[in-house]
Amino acid sequence: MISFTCDYSEGAHPLILKRLADTNLVQEPGYGFDSFSESAREKIRSAIGIPDADVFFLVGGTQTNATVIDSLLKGFEGVMAVQTGHIAVHESGAIEFSGHKVLTLPSHEGKMDAGDLEAYLERFYADGAWEHMVIPGMVYLSFPTEYGTLYSKEELTRIRIVCQKYSLPLFVDGARLGYGLASDACDLTLPELAQLSDAFYIGGTKVGALCGEAVVFPRKAPAHFFTTVKQHGALLAKGRLTGIQFDTLFTDGLYMKIARNAIERAMEVKRVFADLGIPFFIDSPTNQQFPILTKEQMDSLEGKVLYEVWETLPDGRAVTRFATSWATTPEQIEQLKNYCMH
Amino acid sequence: MISFTCDYSEGAHPLILKRLADTNLVQEPGYGFDSFSESAREKIRSAIGIPDADVFFLVGGTQTNATVIDSLLKGFEGVMAVQTGHIAVHESGAIEFSGHKVLTLPSHEGKMDAGDLEAYLERFYADGAWEHMVIPGMVYLSFPTEYGTLYSKEELTRIRIVCQKYSLPLFVDGARLGYGLASDACDLTLPELAQLSDAFYIGGTKVGALCGEAVVFPRKAPAHFFTTVKQHGALLAKGRLTGIQFDTLFTDGLYMKIARNAIERAMEVKRVFADLGIPFFIDSPTNQQFPILTKEQMDSLEGKVLYEVWETLPDGRAVTRFATSWATTPEQIEQLKNYCMH
Amino acid sequence: MISFTCDYSEGAHPLILKRLADTNLVQEPGYGFDSFSESAREKIRSAIGIPDADVFFLVGGTQTNATVIDSLLKGFEGVMAVQTGHIAVHESGAIEFSGHKVLTLPSHEGKMDAGDLEAYLERFYADGAWEHMVIPGMVYLSFPTEYGTLYSKEELTRIRIVCQKYSLPLFVDGARLGYGLASDACDLTLPELAQLSDAFYIGGTKVGALCGEAVVFPRKAPAHFFTTVKQHGALLAKGRLTGIQFDTLFTDGLYMKIARNAIERAMEVKRVFADLGIPFFIDSPTNQQFPILTKEQMDSLEGKVLYEVWETLPDGRAVTRFATSWATTPEQIEQLKNYCMH
Amino acid sequence: MISFTCDYSEGAHPLILKRLADTNLVQEPGYGFDSFSESAREKIRSAIGIPDADVFFLVGGTQTNATVIDSLLKGFEGVMAVQTGHIAVHESGAIEFSGHKVLTLPSHEGKMDAGDLEAYLERFYADGAWEHMVIPGMVYLSFPTEYGTLYSKEELTRIRIVCQKYSLPLFVDGARLGYGLASDACDLTLPELAQLSDAFYIGGTKVGALCGEAVVFPRKAPAHFFTTVKQHGALLAKGRLTGIQFDTLFTDGLYMKIARNAIERAMEVKRVFADLGIPFFIDSPTNQQFPILTKEQMDSLEGKVLYEVWETLPDGRAVTRFATSWATTPEQIEQLKNYCMH
Lengths: 342, 342, 342, 342
Prior knowledge:
Four copies of one chain form a homotetramer. By secondary structure, the first copy, chain A, is an alpha/beta fold. The first copy, chain A, contains 14 helices and 13 strands.
């Protein structure tokens, strides 16, 4: 049985495991002060083209979102996101747990619209009761989104302009950042993304690492961010674990190379379904594909291929998700094709 | 240079790395539903002798303490701990972040005294203003303590009896559990510890793993603990990472074997200092040793051996900490001995 | 100038002020243990027909909502409300401040629909990812709603049935409870409301008191609710202040009598506008009326009458709110009529 | 029976009740935008000699402490207080509820010592692990303290200097401020106190009001403090209630006049006990007196006088508290004297 359930079904890129083994008995300080983490930070600074950016390594996505958002908001502020944003739906209320409301905007195939954002803010401050409401304190968006879609440079720039007008930091959730940047549909580079955001993270867990997300503050981290990380239970004693992984991922362009593999395989998945005339819920240019399958089509894959069912439609068909990753092989696509055609 | 700074200076036990490599491309579900985690849970249940205990894998100590404590307390309750307890001092207020006060008792070489606990609770409920105070909701203690000391079975049983009298769950922080159980001074077994506590964790990060703590609820986990873990940002997408590590540690008694290595090396460290007539701050039977060094002694180790300075005494001497671990070798002790004698 | 801006423009019913003066120098214990509070609790228990109901007096609406909701939810749970619910919009995130998410349903003229609620809950537990989401822990609704509308006994009963099916406590925000119960359109009695809810409050601030809300747990208050009140900063040292007020309001049916005055005046307001052919945003049977005024109509009231503008419509007209209260006089209605007709 | 149990046993100063009645039907805006509140703010600014100070009215002490402290701290910071401070003991964890730890220093008859404070801060930043601890973000003290004692101008100035050295805002809990300022032992004026602190409150509840505390930010309130007040459930809809009270208390020096009454009566209480050779737990110059009574002495007062028992001593005697207030009359002291002498 092959699985396209998600992009975290395997372990880590073999080079990471090798590096962990090679360095295993080197004694290093804890909490991110090890030489591997320092080297990884340097490589990331170089990759984004900002020599004095602040970089921290956290363990997972929800943790990273909760910690970064809490560090950027004042106590009375909330974070703006689209209704389908990960923080609004699938984090068990981790943001509210830290005392902040998620203020939602409509989702356009997973994306926030700069016009919606500006209209919300205008309406908010025009409302006589705004001081009785949650004050918007920052903007959160995902790149790519939870639906695999991408912001164009222009779209992101327009959001940034609204953010600046209202002095709102812009935070980009890059749990699948590599899969966005490696897409043919992406007109943004990593340095451009860094320039456009006040904080973002480079997802490791879904792009080749065992765990780990690299948080980048292109300008400056909030005061005492280290302590906030600790307070959120997000500080690794063996910081080398994330340091080594990101150092490896940012050596010789490995991160983008393996992200590109996922995109190529995803486009093959797309072709498999398209060639069979199967429609898609969304035209995704990244590693998540959303074919709409009939009951019969799903039955025929039963026991052979794993994938996620996102939503059952009134007519009995289902929106499904097939995710590729750094680990997906051409052979697996070939298998999928065979299963689908018989 | 050799380091006795802490017990998380190296990576992981080689068998863990090998196992990670061997299983790397096996596709498994996320979030702890993988077969490795299930196997590890079974082995832990077997090791504690409670076939239906609930077991969860989290990433680090502070995170585990904050998540478990929050899951066991009602909103208006606080957690009791000694003043030197990790949660009271070195977690950047992670417990308060989740809304709960840490109520402190005197520390006796790092340990809580059952008499102190009972006296506190009696005084509390005798105080006419108790409803205006934070209501004690559970008891936290570390085994071994932050000072390397151990509770005897009798001491722990007495605490347990007070807890039961006041219906307070007892939670044992086992960040260094192996190093406690493997000590010659320990008269408790793992199954006995499980019987005496309502929740405890088996520390992995400091005992051979890259990261990971196994939380055990010998009777039953609080409702929806999985969701609480997610809410705290403590849920690993690749649960296999902790699953594989604990499955390895609980195969063929590896966890206790490597813990025993740390104890043997620690006793050798103790002998090195004792033979030189150097006094100790505390007579620790576990992997942390606290020799009191003079300025001259420290100078002579400069550039050769790393260790922690805990406290400078009025007379200029310093309480230091030398920690051994699963990775400490007889050769390193030999080196330390040579450095100390010259 | 007369004001219909809100129902808290004046002080308190004169009988309350008289009672405060008459009892002023009687020495009483603090924190709600005074004899006035005890008497008020007895009268409220009698009014709802539940002799052993738990009754507490808090100071204001947002405070009451935040305290009661926090006391009814477990840490990982959220509260369900309609999108226009006070807790979802106008409490500056007080619910999120206590760590809980407000889960929203569509608003039907301010009301929750039992069908929407049930559909949400069914969909929720059918979603494979529900454990990664905020678990619904209770239901919040306002009676009357923020739009002045009322639930019929049948509507509320249907919601209650869904709540019971999913073991969700039902909490009724009665900031304007009197104005709901006194409406001709209301087919519910106070004892019936008490039977249908697990917690509700009888609003004082908007119905004749200087401040104060009476929280009723018809069955049983959550454990240590007193301490939760204190923890939320909601405990009055001089509990007599709310005790005396509610004791007065629940003597000789004063609460319902003065609520009835507001309703009669509100119906007169309605007639004033209706007679002029002015349309309403919502057909409200309670003390808040929502005429839609043109720019010219608003200009003509300028400097004579105060009211709230809720929303400007695309055509330039505005949805306005005129609120009556226990203090509104027939003379004030007469004045409004004169201003409107000239 | 007469009661010296506390300083909130009666209602309000009669002038306040009169003023509430006189203004009762004047229509005013809510939430502190009424003319009474504005007038009160002006009078307080004038009394402290700072024309542009920010002034807000909250309802009670615990609420005020929690709201002000939360508004002054960043998420990762804690508040420093002595171990006997109200926030550390008798607020049911309201500070921790908002996510912040109370960091405690030794109490010297209820007071903080500037030397202790400085030593703590020096030790803190000298500790290699300080980033793993809660970072001190402000200093809290009570004037008078919970034990009725007062800081001299010099003592407070020394604390202020340490605060400035470490950029820590100084917040003074003035629940009984009047009783401190009116004491013969006080060498501080209200304007001096305002200059020495970054935030303080003028207690109303215990000094003649039904409820209410006036929060003063002599320099500037934290951004959006109004919204923080709302978020904490601390915003009164009928802000007139506190506005009228403080406007009355700050007209013709009423606040200090009635505070002085409490002090004179307290000194008479002191004399009653001293003349009988009864010792005191603390030599308090304010409205709380702490005679140490024998079992027989307490028996003889049984059924005649109410007071608080603070602590039972090993020899069976009890530390008791007798509190006077604005409402205590010479006749009540006479009665106490008679009861004590027979």
